[in-house]
TrEMBL record:
InterPro entries named among the record's database cross-references: Homeodomain-like_sf, HTH-type_TetR-like_transc_reg, HTH_TetR, Tet_transcr_reg_TetR-rel_C_sf
UniProt keyword list: DNA-binding
Gene3D superfamilies named among the record's database cross-references: Homeodomain-like, Tetracycline Repressor, domain 2
Any single Pfam family the record assigns to this protein: TetR_N
Lipid metabolism among keywords: no
Protein name as annotated: TetR/AcrR family transcriptional regulator
Organism, as annotated: Saccharothrix hoggarensis
Annotated region of DNA binding: 27-46
Residue span, HTH tetR-type domain: 4-64
Lineage start: Bacteria, Bacillati, Actinomycetota, Actinomycetes, Pseudonocardiales
Amino acid sequence: MKRDLTRERIVEAAYDLLNREGREALSTRAVCAASGVQSPTIYRLFGDKRGLLDAVACHGFEAYLAGKTALAETDDPVDDLRRGWDLHVEFGTSNPALYSLIYGDARPGVESPAAERASAVLAKQVKRIAEAGRLRVSEERAAHLIHAAGCGMVFTLISLPPQDRDPDLSTLARESVIAAVTTEPSTTPAKTDAVTAAVTLRSVAPTVTALTDNERALLSDWLNRIATTTDPAHHEQR
């Protein structure tokens, strides 16, 4: 219990420093002074400074994740994605230091725990679009594109003085990305291209009980090859 309380005190002190003075203020010495502990305590509880920064990011990210996961799902998963995008951009522009801490230090093959949790929420949103038959690229490609565009938009906006930020810029980027990865809903039967069909079936293939495990694995492999193929005919239909 004492260990947990000490850890919480250190994280909250570091988070306050981050908000008041920016990431540059998060030196081990400054955090120790603000929390009333010695540096060995920080290394014992967090392993290293990176571990402390990840803990601070998770602490500050809780409110964002709570808001994002609390968004009620509607019958339109694409519109749900729009709302998720807007919430992400609002969070980043309202918390620039925290956002930079979470996304501004890319490590190949490694995501901070906070970013990893956010990625899981995005993946779920994209999967719902695929299951609805409205995803024109693979789930992985769609998620990467949405993430890259969203992060780029936030960093662009926070680099500008508030009075110089174009209020329509985020909307334009959001709709461009959505147009690139989704199809329009259809109320009448229409010809479906191979990529969209493969993406849709791939999203539900693991639940197909009529096949054996080996057959499902083979089907998923085939569908993945189709879903990740750049088909010129597919793009012409856009």
